[in-house]
Structures are given as C-alpha cells and as structure tokens.
Design a protein that fits this description.
Distance between the termini: 104 Å
Helix content: 40-55%
Number of helices: 15
Radius of gyration: 56 Å
Shape: elongated
Mean pLDDT: 78
Largest sheet: 6 strands, mixed
Number of strands: 23
Low-confidence stretches: 546-551, 709-727
C-alpha cells in the first residue's frame, strides 16, 4: 500500500506540474505564433500597399507611353499644328487617362492650358504653374499642394506638355486599407499628410520616419492606447512649404485581435488542463489498485520470455479484462514455444537445402546466373565468374549489381532484350548461339523463374545458362566433313575407274565414225553420242569437285535454251513404245542465270530421268521456267504425274547412294549431285510430293541480270539460303 500511495502522490504532483507547464508552454507558443503571424501579416500588408502605389506608377508610365506612341493622336496634333489640341485629340487622350483610373490631366502649350478631371474627382486641381515640366523627358514625381499629395506624370507631344495626376488622399488610403486588415498613413518628417485614419498621438507616428533605409518594421507601438505593429516605406523627397521633406508610407496593423486570441487560448488551455488533472486523479484512484498486481506479474513473465524461456504461465483467476489479457498471454507463450521448435526445424532444413542447392549449382558444368526483376544479379556460380568475369569481378562483387553497370561481354544488347522479354512475360524460353571474342561458341539458354502464389504465376527472376559448345560443334562439323569426304571419295574413285576408260573409247570411236559417216540421220545420232559422252566426262570431273563450295561467278547460261536442248535429247532417247509426253511452259523474259550450261544440263537430265522412271512408261512431265523480278532469281520446276515419293523416305532423297530403283538401274547419286551443284551456285531446291499423285522439284537459281519491261540492268547475284533444301 505504501508503494501505491507514493505512486499516487507522485502521479498527482506530476499532473499538477503538467497542468502548470502546459498552460505556460501553450501560452508562450501561442504568443510566439501570434507575433510571427502578426509580423507575416504586416509584411504582406506593407508589400501589398507599396505594390498598389508602384502599380499606379507603372500604369501611369504605360498610359504616358501609349499616348506618346499613339499614331492617331500624333496625326491629329500634326493636323492642328499651331493651335491648341483638337477635340478629337483631347477625347483620345481623355479616354486613355480616365480608363486607367487617374483623377485628371492637364494640357499646356506656352501660356495656354486646359484641365480635364474625372467625374469622381472632388479636390481642386493643381494650377498650371505648379505642374510646369522641369525635365525634357517623361517622368513621374510626387507633388504636394494645399495639403494634397499626388503622383504626377509629365511628358511632351510635339510642342505640348501633358500632365497626368493621381491624388493620394484619404479615399485612396481607405481603398487600400479596405483590402487589407491594416490602416494606411502617409506622413513626412513634420506632418501626417493623409491616411485612412488619423491617430491621436501623431508625434509617435512622425518619430517612426527617422530611418536611413527604405523599409523598417516596428513592433508593439502604442497608438491611441492600443498596441500596433508598423511597417514604414520611404517613398520620396517632396517640396512641402518650400522645404524638402522625406515622405513615408506607414502600414499600421492593430494587435488587439492577437492579444484577445492569446487571452482566450490561455483560458481554454488552463480549463482543459485543470479538468484533465482532476479527471486523471479520479481515474487513477479507481483503477490503480487493480492495475498494479496483474501488471507486475505480466512484466515478470515477459522478462522470462525475453530471457529465452517460453514455457511460462501466469495463474490469475479473474474474468475481467486483465483475466482475458493474461489468458491471451498464456496462449501466446504456449504458441511461441511450439513455433520456436518448428522454426528451429525449418531453419535446419532450409540451411541444409540451401547448401545442397548451392553445391548442385556449383557442380554443373555450365555458367549459371539468376537475374532479378530489377536486372540485378541474385545468384551466380563460380564457372560463370571464371568464364566471363575472372579478370574484372569477383563473385561477391557481381551479386546485387545491375547488369547494365557491368562491363561483361556476355550481357550484350540481344541477351539483355531476351532477359527483358522473359521478365515481362512475353516469352518463357529464349535461346541464342553466339561466338565470343575468344572465338569460343556459347549456347545461351534463358528461362523464366516462376514463383507461384495463391495459384497464380508471378515471374520475378530469370535464369541465364551459358554452355560452351565449341568442342561439340567442332566435333559435329568434323563428323559431317568426314562423312562428306568419304562419300565423295567413294563416288569419285568409282566413277573415275568405271567410266573414264570405256568413255574414252566411246568418244574416240564416235569421232572416227562422224568423220566417215555420210548419211544425215546416222550422222545426227553419232553427234548426239559424241556430245553426251563429253557431257559424261564433264560430270566425272564435277564429281571430283563436289566438296568445293566456290561457284564460278563468270558461268552463266540461258536456262530456256538448255531446257529445250535437253528435252530434245531426252525425247530422242525415249523408247518408241513409251507413252510419255514432255510439256514445256517457259517464261520468255527469263534472264541468264549464274550457272554453267553443262552443269545445268546435268541437273535437268537427272531430274527428267527420275521423272521418266516415276511415270513408268505412261504419263506427263511438265518443265516450267518463271522469272521472279522482285527477288531476282529464276524458278525452274520439273513436275511429273508419277507414283510420288513415300513420306518415310523423303528426308533421304539427297543422300549419296540412296535409291529406290532396282539393282542395276540406279546408283543413288543423281539427286546428291543435283544438290551439290545447286549449293555451289548459291541457289536452293525443294521437293513437294504426294504418294500416288506425282512429284514437283523446284529449283531457284540467281539471275545474272534483272529484267524490267524489256530493259535489263546488271545486278550482283544475292545468296538465296545457301544450300537450303525443303523436302
């Protein structure tokens, strides 16, 4: 109980000190804030009042300049030269002056003068001799006459002097005061000239004019028994009563509203604080006894949990709020104990899994890095560092770095764009092959790392795998070249051995017979034998060059002429009993093609022989040529109505020694030779076939010249997918 009463008395004393301190603190804060608000308001009002006067000056300047530069007024003056202003000129000037809000203006020429006053002007005007211009250029001055301070603008038009006047009287000051929450007074060092209000102690106001700067503020100046804040602007020097006096503009802000506000806030703060203190004391008396014991036990239990012992429980038999609080605490303690055991198990499993995954990633023989949605590296293995960043960055330096900041060859524009497509979900997989500066060929595989939450896919990271496939590709190329060389070697050796010797005898005998033959029909047959024998010799030579991919750029032929010649030869060799018809559909506009005549003839003979074999002695074969002006190549097709090619063997038709013909009928070299020649001249070939409906073989050969509407223009033959074959 002693502790309770000591606590209660201490709390009561604290409340009292708090009440007193709050009242004092609030009063001081409010007073400082009010002083600052009053200073700011005074500053704003002073600037506003000064700006109004400056605004009238600017308006007077604009009015004088507009009148001087008005060509219509100048014209009227020139027309009335030697006389006083015409009525039209005066009306134009009057409109410009009174529209701007000035009180009156005066026009004088020599001893003549006229005055025009605004209908709202109620004072006497300045006599002309007072307004006599003393300067040769336009100017604005302050004038004081008969207790009235005015702004006077003077300027000349030709021989005329014009004066525009704006009086700074009590009405002018009241208009300014109505727009702000302050009074306006214009005074000199000796007199209060005018103002929106006249104060009783004018001498106090005049004392405020003893300043050497253009602007000064005064706080807490007592005027008419009320505290005021005053801002003083120095306007100009004016001749008043024959002496030069300084004229000031005073903006006077009453502080009565701020003083009343402080008093009201003090009362409210004191009342609220007193009520709070009394209410706090009463509440403390009611609940203090019920708070001390359960709070003490809760604090002890919390300290036990803080020490790491979660098996703590509080025995408190009560159904009030504290009883519910302690029951909740006991449940929380039990749950914390269970969660601690589960968390320790999870941490152990996660640590093991993390180490296991780290070992897997480090063991893979591929460079692996994971890029986050912010293009920062989240994970990278040691092989990546050795392959791409060994001389520049360590593994630790790469982590959490933006790939755009890294000077690494791997992250070029194409790979960065691929990463962007995977991160924004436009692609799921991205593959590229690229040869690096060290001449090693890498295969880049990019995958989206999808993290699913609530059944939804959320792409947040991208996996980049870089695998060195230089050795693999080199090995594949070597195998391909070995197979090709092996096939060509077998082909060349067999053809050279089996054909050259008998072919030489055939050519020699044919030439001997040609010299001795007199019958035209037999002579024609012998010449065909000699021609085709020489073609066979050329084929043997070309087979030996099969592996060479360089084309003879000077070779060219007229495909239509070769087609017609070959078809005549084939028709001549057809069996008389065969019902095979060869139809020609040739484009007369076809230009020369980049291929030798003999090689193209060799291609066509092979294709026609295959077509004749496919129709089996009865059918139609169509040979077409068509010039593609847009792409610059000539398309030649051989179509037959034969049995077609089964789908299971279409992919092997260009393989050397592959044939479907019986033994002794075909060698399987025809289409492989055709493919080699087409590839040699950077053309392309494709086969379309339907089993039982026939076959179409299409070749596309680069044109040496482009033909347009009967004219030709030379054009370099472009590569058309070198060696591409669609089956």
């Amino acid at each position: 109980m002693k502790l309770f009463y000591k606590t209660f008395l201490s709390f009561l004393v604290l409340i009292l000190f708090q009440a007193i301190g709050t009242v004092v603190l609030v009063s001081n804060i409010v007073e400082r804030n009010n002083q600052e608000d009053a200073r700011i308001e005074l500053k704003q009002d002073a600037v506003f009042s000064q700006e109004i006067i400056n605004g009238w000056k600017r308006s007077m300047w604009k009015t004088m300049i507009s009148i001087q530069q008005n060509k219509a007024i100048a014209g009227l003056i020139e027309a009335d030269a030697g006389y006083m202003f015409s009525e039209k000129a005066l009306e134009a000037v009057q409109q410009g002056v009174f529209t701007s809000g000035f009180d009156y203006f005066l026009v004088s020429r020599g001893s003549l003068s006229r005055v025009f006053a605004n209908h709202n002007f109620q004072h006497s005007v300045y006599p002309p001799e007072i307004l006599e211009s003393t300067k040769e250029y336009a100017n604005i001055t302050y004038r004081f006459h008969e207790g009235l301070l005015s702004l006077v603008g003077s300027f000349s038009i030709g021989e005329y002097d014009l004066f525009i006047v704006k009086t700074l009287d009590a009405v002018f000051c009241s208009e300014i005061a109505d727009k702000i929450d302050a009074e306006i007074v214009i005074f000199s060092t000796k007199y209060q000239l005018t103002g929106s209000r006249r104060f009783e102690n004018n001498g106090k106001i005049l004392e405020l004019g003893n300043i050497d700067i253009s602007y000064r503020e005064y706080q807490n100046v007592e005027l008419s028994q009320v505290q005021h804040d005053v801002a003083v602007h120095k306007l100009t020097d004016v001749d008043i009563g024959g002496t030069q006096q300084k004229v000031y503009l005073a903006t006077i802000l009453s502080k009565s509203k701020y003083i009343d506000r402080i008093a009201m806030i003090n009362k409210i703060a004191f009342a609220v604080t007193l009520f709070t203190a009394v209410f706090s004391v009463l509440i403390s008396l009611l609940i203090s006894r019920n708070l001390i014991l359960p709070v003490k036990r809760l604090v002890g239990a919390m300290l036990t949990i803080k020490g790491g012992n979660y098996s703590v429980s509080i025995d408190y038999q009560s159904k009030n709020e504290f009883g519910k609080l302690i029951d909740g605490f006991n449940n929380m303690s039990q749950k914390l104990q269970e969660d601690k055991k589960t968390m320790e198990q999870y941490i152990t499993e996660i640590t093991h899994l993390k180490d296991y995954n780290e070992r897997i990633i480090q063991s893979l023989q591929a460079s692996i890095t994971i890029i986050g949605a912010d293009y920062r590296i989240k994970l990278v293995n040691d092989l990546f560092v050795r392959e791409f960043a060994e001389d520049k960055y360590t593994r630790g330096e790469l982590l959490n770095r933006n790939i755009g900041e890294l000077d690494l060859e791997i992250f070029n524009k194409e790979i960065v764009e691929g990463i962007g497509m995977l991160l924004n979900g436009s692609e799921q997989v991205f593959f590229r092959r690229r040869r690096m500066k060290n001449e090693r060929l890498f295969e880049f595989k990019l995958y989206s790392l999808i993290q699913g939450e609530n059944g939804q896919s959320n792409i947040q990271e991208c996996v980049v795998i870089a695998e060195d496939i230089t050795a693999k590709v080199d090995f594949e190329n070597k195998i391909y070249q070995a197979e090709k060389i092996s096939s060509i070697s077998m082909l060349s050796a067999g053809v050279a051995h089996e054909i050259n010797n008998p072919l030489s005898s055939i050519i020699t005998n044919a030439q001997n017979l040609i010299e001795a033959e007199q019958q035209p029909d037999r002579l024609l047959s012998l010449r065909y034998i000699d021609q085709e024998s020489k073609r066979i010799a050329g084929i043997v030579r070309n087979l030996l060059d099969f592996s060479c991919t360089d084309s003879d750029e000077t070779s060219s032929c007229n495909v239509n002429g070769v087609i017609e010649e070959v078809v005549r030869l084939v028709n001549f060799s057809l069996n008389k009993n065969d019902d095979v018809f060869i139809d020609l559909d040739l484009d007369s506009n076809s230009p020369l093609c980049n291929i030798s005549k003999d090689e193209f003839g060799q291609i066509l003979i092979n294709l026609l022989r295959n077509a004749i074999h496919a129709v089996s002695g009865s059918g139609k074969i169509t040979v077409r040529s068509e010039y593609d002006l847009k792409n610059g190549y000539v398309q030649i097709s051989v179509q037959d109505s034969g049995v077609g090619i089964p789908e299971s063997i279409r992919s092997h038709v260009f393989d050397p020694f592959f044939t479907t013909k019986p033994n002794g009928v075909g060698t399987g070299l025809g289409l492989s030779v055709v493919y080699g020649i087409i590839k040699k001249y950077e053309g392309k070939i494709q086969i379309e076939s339907e089993e039982g409906a026939g076959t179409v073989v299409q070749m596309m050969l680069p044109a040496r010249q482009r033909v347009e509407y009967g004219f030709t223009r030379s054009e370099d033959s472009g590569a058309i997918d070198s060696g591409a074959v669609n089956v």
